[in-house]
Design goal:
single chain; mainly alpha; 2 helices
């Protein structure tokens, strides 16, 4: 059973790309709060967070691509209405 994503057991779940966008926004908010902190530790965390943002953006693109492939091949997901999964068992 998934905790956050849409599934047969959790029809009110979220799409992966939507969750990743929420996380990206939170990381960006943290970046903004530490931008003016010139201590080396803060600058290292900022640098790390910027790299995390890049990875999140790439992950969002991949998740969107998967959604596009599934929509094109099998039509819109019906999981939110209790329908079966489009792929898998």
């Amino acid at each position: 059973m998934t905790h956050f994503l849409v599934s047969e057991e959790k029809p009110d779940g979220h799409r992966l790309e939507d969750l990743l966008r929420i996380i990206r926004k939170d990381v960006l908010t943290r970046c903004i709060r530490i931008t003016d902190d010139t201590r080396p530790e803060a600058q290292q965390v900022l640098s790390n967070n910027i790299k995390v943002l890049e990875h999140l953006s790439e992950a969002i693109k991949l998740a969107e691509s998967s959604t596009h492939v599934l929509d094109k091949a099998f039509g819109p997901s019906q999981a939110a209405r209790g329908g079966p999964p489009r792929i898998g068992t």
